[in-house]
UniProtKB/TrEMBL annotation:
GO molecular function, one term: hydrolase activity
E.C. no: 3.5.1.125
Xref: Pfam families: AstE_AspA_cat (PF24827)
Keywords, comma-separated and alphabetical: Hydrolase, Metal-binding, Zinc
Name assigned to this protein: N-alpha-acetyl-L-2,4-diaminobutyric acid deacetylase
Organism lineage string: Bacteria, Pseudomonadati, Pseudomonadota, Betaproteobacteria, Burkholderiales
Broad enzyme group: hydrolase
Length: 330
């Protein structure tokens, strides 16, 4: 039994905006609750989409886009339902942090959650077992956050299990129409796998990052979302565009081969740029040690070939920090 109370009726037609109340008793507020914004635009029967931003609190593009679409989409243009979570992990989003300041929880590593657990675990439980249980699709809008920057607008989806699922998934990704789509393995603690467990199809977007909001990426993601909503029969009317923002190319990412990490604490100097095509053995970055001026920098190398799609933003690094990740064409 969930501890979260929803102020809005998800079965009611029309536009409804309110909060998910997560009880949170603390010194300053004995009977208080955490206000997680939620909205619904519903009109009769049809597809149900959960559109989520703020899964990580320092990823702002999704928060802007989800809250904007709550205001823009009129109920008469909808056949089915859009459920909006602009700040899914509200404590993290309110603090501008990747993880919750209340419990250190990373929402996208917390599924299936625990209804009686920490705030992050309770949010994960509600999303999976209440919201995703009634959804046909999850669209989860991310970015690189404060520490990473993605090259443009990208989509991620779990590798399909059979040919029929592959055809359906690729048609959905093409309708969203961001330039790159990465296929990845299932991870049981991710929202994408929570959606799969509940019978919903998940698409995750990575839209830039670096603690910024880029106008071009917002425009492309907005066009792609509205085109996708039209493609699945959820949305009609003046907001549906003539087509997707781009023709999608499909890539694969391997954690073992395509990620480059720091093994020393220091200041990193990137030796490649986003969008570069690199080969196995090519130098990726140098780690410098300004506190020991006579010490030579350490060079890190790419283990495999691919396109540089993501890089670290802060120059200060510690052992275990991700510097780059690559993707290879499918």
């Amino acid at each position: 039994m969930t501890s979260i109370y929803n102020e809005i009726d998800l079965d009611a037609d029309g536009r409804h905006v309110g909060y998910l109340r997560l009880p949170h008793s603390v010194h300053r507020s004995a009977y208080g609750w955490i206000p997680i914004p939620i909205a619904s635009v519903r009109n009769g029967d049809g597809p149900v989409v959960l559109l989520m931003g703020g899964n990580h609190g320092d990823e702002y593009e999704g928060q802007v886009l989800v809250s904007s679409l709550i205001r823009e989409i009129e109920p008469q243009w909808v056949r089915g339902q859009l459920i909006f979570l602009p700040m899914a992990n509200f404590p993290a989003a309110a603090a501008g942090l990747r993880t919750s300041p209340l419990d250190g929880g990373n929402l996208n590593r917390s599924f299936p959650g625990d209804s009686q657990g920490t705030p992050t675990a309770a949010i994960a439980d509600y999303i999976e077992h209440t919201l995703l249980a009634r959804a046909d699709y999850l669209i989860d809008l991310h970015s690189g956050g404060s520490s990473l920057l993605y090259d443009g607008a990208n989509m991620l989806a779990i590798e399909p299990r059979d040919a029929g699922e592959e055809q359906r998934l690729k048609s959905l990704l093409a309708a969203f129409g961001l330039p790159r789509a990465f296929l990845h393995r299932e991870n049981p603690v991710h929202a994408a796998t929570a959606a799969r467990r509940q019978g919903a199809v998940s698409i995750l977007a990575e839209l830039g990052g670096g603690g910024t909001v880029q106008a071009r990426l917002l425009r492309d993601a907005r066009q792609g979302l509205l085109n996708l909503f039209g493609f699945i029969g959820l949305l009609n009317g003046p907001l549906v565009p003539d087509g997707p923002p781009a023709q999608t190319r499909f890539f694969r990412v391997s954690i073992a081969r395509h990620y480059v990490y720091a093994y020393d604490r220091g200041v990193y100097e990137p030796l490649v740029e986003l969008g570069d095509i690199v080969h196995a053995g090519q130098p990726a970055a140098r780690i410098h040690f300004p506190d020991t001026p006579l010490r030579e920098p350490v060079t890190t190398f790419f283990a495999d070939a691919g396109t540089v799609v993501c890089k670290r933003v802060p120059a200060a690094v510690e052992r275990g920090d991700c510097l780059f990740h690559l993707a290879e064409p499918v």
